[in-house]
Amino acid sequence: MEGECIHIRRLTEGSMSYGNFYWEFIKTNTPVIVTGVSIKWECSNWLLKHGQENNIYSSEINFDYLKQQIGDRLVVVTKCSTHDESTVSVEMQFHEFLNYWRNQILSSKADVNNVTAPKILYLKDWHLKAQLPNYEFYKVPQYFASDWLNEYLEEHKLDDYRFVYMGPKNSWTPLHIDVFGSYSWSTNIYGRKKWILLPPGEQFKLLGPRGSLPCNIKEEMLIEKSVNFLIIYQHENETLFVPSGWYHQVLNVTDTISVNHNWFNGTNIKYIWCNITENLRKVMNEILEFRQYVNFKEDCQQILKCNFGLNISDFLEILCFIANSRLTLYMKRYRSKDMSGNRKSVNSHPDNFHIHYDLKSINMLSKFIAQDKIVFNCSTLYDRCMNLIDITQEIFLER
Ligand SMILES: O=C(O)CCC(=O)C(=O)O
Ligand SMILES: [Fe+2]
Hints:
Layout: E1 5-6, E2 9-12, H1 18-26, E3 32-35, E4 47-53, E5 56-61, H2 63-70, E6 74-79, E7 88-93, H3 94-110, E8 121-126, H4 128-131, H5 148-155, E9 162-167, E10 172-176, E11 183-190, E12 193-198, H6 219-224, E13 229-234, E14 239-242, E15 247-252, E16 256-263, H7 269-286, H8 296-308, H9 312-334, H10 343-346, H11 350-370, H12 373-376, H13 379-398
Parallel strand pairs: 1-13, 2-3
Antiparallel strand pairs: 3-14, 4-5, 6-7, 6-8, 8-9, 9-16, 10-15, 11-14, 11-16, 12-13, 12-15
The structure holds 2-oxoglutaric acid and fe (ii) ion.
Fe (ii) ion is lined by residues 176, 178, 184, 248.
């Protein structure tokens, strides 16, 4: 049925084995909510919990604890427009943002009739974990442990995709697809978010005459245009898995704090590769008039890196790092054990499954990449691909 609001499954963390979760949600690219994730995280101290009434605790943000734990540091906040994407970013000290937020809460309590339109500042995409690596304020939910992107970036001390979001009621993120076409998981520490999610391909029904997408979508618009969509109200301690290629828009229905990661792994890696090459072809078309220059190919890769965040060389570097790290683990720990990557063994410890599964996906992808015209015509890239095939092949030959 078209214009349909699809429903999402909710399950408690630990109620399903890692393997079953992987096959049922990650492998099928299906959104799901995992409940009870962050109850024991250190960042639950960012809240002040009040007494229990009818089994419901009320809580508020513990601004003093936040100030004390995180200290002062420069943060970039986004000024949210109420109706469009025209966002402006400003830098301020973390304590200034907290003061703004505390005052905002106080004045909205005083202004019960909502007479004055509040200024909305959203502290988003904040690399708090990278800034305070020793502060263990959250744990990656077990089901999302296989994260090649941040594993590589963290090891190389590069800018990662691990974020904190803090925003007052009505702060929001316009319609978008995640960086590189990655997955995201997002855990609400405090407050409630409303998500609108579109299954891959549904966004085309929203394209305007000049081929652009609206940045602020409403349910009525989606129904009118027969777009299938998902509305999700995400509560405290709940983690939403946002699959690859699903456009989404997010509204903080109340004051909200969340932690999220963008990531990819052996399951969506081919999709990420296709996104990279699609973007590279766009870059090449844009500067086609310079194709006679000797440095044309290198310049395209450079522009791709600036615009998209990754170029082919970076991508192969990530594959190489993951392949080597899995091979090392394999040699050390599991050489004599059963390493079959089929459905049966997936239910054992995630490491057992991922060593084999990751190497197999790198092997298959490298074979695919090696046939790409751009890679095939560049000896450095082609040789790196061949090397990846070689090192990951070994493990299959041995079986
Ligand atoms: O919470 C938000 O405002 C945006 C989060 C998001 O887009 C994501 O987790 O992918
Ligand atoms: Fe997103």
